[in-house]
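Sorry, can you check?
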Amino acid sequence: MEHDSTLYVGLDVHKDSITVAYALGSGEVEVLGKIGTTKADIDRLCKRLQSKASHICFVYEAGPCGYGLYRQLLQKGFDCMVCAPSLIPRKPGERVKTDRRDAVKLARLLRAGDLSAVYVPTVDDEAFRDLARAWVSAKDDLKRARQRLKAFLLSHGVRYAGRADWGPSHRRWLSSYAFDSAWQQLAFEEHRRTIDDRLAQCERLEAALREAVVSWRFYPVVLALPTMRGVQFTTAVGVLAELGDLSRFVHPRQLMAWLGVTPCEHSSGGKRRLGSITKNGNSYARKLLIEAAWSYQHPARVSPEIQRRHEGIPKPIVDRAWDAQVRLCRRYRKLVARGKQKNIAVVAVARELAAFIWDISRLAMSLAVPCEPITA
């Protein structure tokens, strides 16, 4: 046995089973078979593989089973990679897909170094992200519940004379309206009750999120990012919960590429062709970034709200936020003046906004922004 060689192990992970394949050095890839997913099954697998080589590297695809297996293998002292499924090389003519083939492919590609690893958050970061995602899901449910009520009223020819923005006057009108039919009235009340339940859920989750963010390790960044125009508490928390540790990006261009706001390219010879943005990475973080970029279509100014968010923040961060606003507003005006569509100009601004977010995050962690609770 070549104990000085590296054993490359590919795992095709499912809810109830794991298919294992391994390759020792430059030899052929062998299939070990299927095992269970319990801790005892993983322990037996590790003990069996340790007899084949002194250094073992595992890999499996990111999926619905999470990062529990990754952390379990790291705790045992093994190297493990969670690879991005969308970046796994695939042959165009390959039409057969099985668990056995997937495990063999992962082991072979790991040995060749052709896999791209995904970022695995810490346990605390993942827990905070779960809370933030629950909040986002509740807001989406509230939006859909409101749309269903509007569609219900429209189908019966009921229209609100004012602006249906769910403000106090709109809610008063909804509470006073009544249908002639008892059945329709019951359906109407159920729609209203669903909205009230979703609204209460959003308020509970937001309160829990504001309380939890104070003890989060990136709380200084959550305080610093709202100094920028268009970046409020919801945007800062949503972006940071999805991005995690921004220090893993050595250069802001890496963050831009991760967010998928860089243009795709197809160049050959002396020709260079740039297309639309790649839309890789996290779609929700990209959505928040582009929504924030829309605020830079107006002239640069410090509103009373932004001035309030500057209180207690170190001056270098405030100055950097003002530099970002001046540059991005000017960038938008120049692009529109050159004939670019507004949507294209906003995406270009969002790309540069990601660089400023990276820079201000770095400043906030180095300057240790005072951790004062965020008020609603």
Observations:
- The mean pLDDT is 92.
- The chain has 13 helices and seven strands.
- The two ends are 64 Å apart (CA to CA).
- The longest strand covers residues 6-13.
